[in-house]
Amino acid sequence: MNMKINAASREDQGKGASRRLRHQEKVPAIVYGAGKTPSAITLNAHEITHLLENEEAYTSVLDLVLDDKTEPVIVKDLQRHPAKNTITHLDLLRVDMKQSIVTNIPLHFIGEDENQTIRLGAVLNQFITSVEISCLPADLPNGIEVDISKLEMNEHISLTELIIPAGVTLIALTHGDIEAHDQSVVAVQEPKKMAEIEEDIVPETEGEDGESVEGEGGESADGEDKGEGESGGDKGDGDKGDKKDSKD
Question: In whole numbers, what is the pLDDT of the chain averaged over residues?
């Protein structure tokens, strides 16, 4: 299925220009690659949002229609508004259909509902959820399926056990020493026992007077705030202010 993106060229750039475009329900974007000069473009916000609601759009070759010309591209990066989750900028990479591309694709874990060990209480640990691959644009898969339906307790699936589509290469396994890079993808393990969870909790230490002393970022033994909060670098500012007040 071909997916199309309609775009228009733009000359105005910068934060102010991008802000005006968003007020007009347009998304600023850039298209680059394939040895051509990068081009600043504008996309329809509703159209691109609807397109990217389809997960396959992130791992498919898209048809970019710009100035009555069509060229193949892939989504390379995008930015979203932190609160509204709307798309604020999009990077598109031109592709040469005769040259390999390197990109990330997701892993699709299937068979969890059929796994008897998991249904009896075992825990499924997913160590990686995407892999970097190399392939021709025409061979680009939307994802790689990982069947976990028959995994038993303490069994795992590694990168070399994945079923890779024809024409696709896992970048992690091209570095010479395959064993050193053959990491675990997913494993079925015993649920953590309460005793192990308690061991992971850092116990409070007692001072000489028997009172507990909290770790870094809390209060010191004499009750004064250490001042190490989220700001990180503003250590002790609150204490300095208190001492100054006491002098007054």
Answer: 82
